[in-house]
Predict the 3D structure of the following.
Amino acid sequence: MKQRLTLALLLGATLLISGCGSRSVGNKIDDQFIPSNVSSNIERAHADLGSKSSHIVVTSYNGVVLLAGQTPRAELKQLAGQAAGRTQDVKKVYNELQVMTPSNALARSNDALITSKIKANMLLDTTIPSSKIKIVTENGIVFLLGLVTRKEGQSAANVATTHSGVQKVVKLFEYVD
């Protein structure tokens, strides 16, 4: 009996907290599964897309998918985008793959450091709803996804541009105003 009460309270608290955001619980759950489903579809589209000759990062926010990374040929980039678009629950695909050899471990570590610094600075800025923004850095390019107002999106982009190593900031926001 006590376990059921605890479970019911946890479920209620989770639903209450998730109701405070602009995405539904279903959208949040879908975003947990979309990247792996997209990755599987991409790997099935061509052997080179699942091999070491390609480095593909798949991110989802509110059903919007970002493909970032590198693949050696333009036709592979196109195949990856098509495979992502055929995945269930995907509303839109931003195919930002670069046609080049995959980045190395040092570049990926640098990208992770850039992302961490940007996230930390966004947490400190009260004008940015950092919990509604997903940040992906790939080969020095910072991608920003989320559900924000235009002002919040611009503030987030401004914070992202201030970090060394950032080559470019790409805003892929869904605007709520």
Summary: The CA atoms of residues 73 and 134 lie 28 Å apart. Residues 25-45 form the longest helix (21 residues). DSSP finds five helices and eight strands in the chain.
